[in-house]
Amino acid sequence: MADENVPAFLFDLDGALVDSVYQHVLAWREALERVGTQLSVWRIHRRIGMSGGLLVNALLRETGHSISQADEPLLQTFHAEAYAKLAPQVRPLPGAVELLRYLSVMKVPFAIATSGLIDSARPVLGLLAVHPSIPVVTRDQVRHAKPDPDLFFYGCRPARCFHR
User: Fold this and answer.
1) What range does the domain containing 97 cover?
2) Do 27 and 74 share a domain, yes or no?
3) Model-wide pTM > 0.90
4) Which of 20, 106, 122, 145 supports an S-S bond with 51, CB 3.0-4.6 Å?
5) Whose CA is closest to 103, among 93, 112, 92?
6) What does DSSP say about strands 91-92 and 18-19: parallel, antiparallel, or unpaired?
7) Alpha-carbon gap, residue 80 to 138, rounded angstroms
């Protein structure tokens, strides 16, 4: 049984541990353009941090644009493809690797939660040198992503998280 008096941390990934926000913005812009919707990057940037589905729905509602039902499932694939091309530009934020290493050495429990899918998170976790035993919860595992709290509830229950 875990000691309830031991501090624990739950980290967001994109924008908190790694500098990947602009890569996601550009990847969403490319994905949306592939289905015929052109938007300014500032509009997309304001929505980063939401799950992909919520982000797209909010953008379409805000701008009055629409996409076909056939294109809806393609957006996640197009975003993943565009992000994969930009992923080599992603860098850990200053001190992130050292902080996670320190917490591991000091045996302070922590988990990482992200609205992204495990396939896009896995390489970033490698940049952070996150040990495979560290719990990671991704969009793949929850019914609703941010701003709903599902990611955080799962992150507080490490047995449910991915262990790479």
Assistant:
1) 9-19+90-160
2) yes
3) no
4) 145
5) 112
6) antiparallel
7) 14
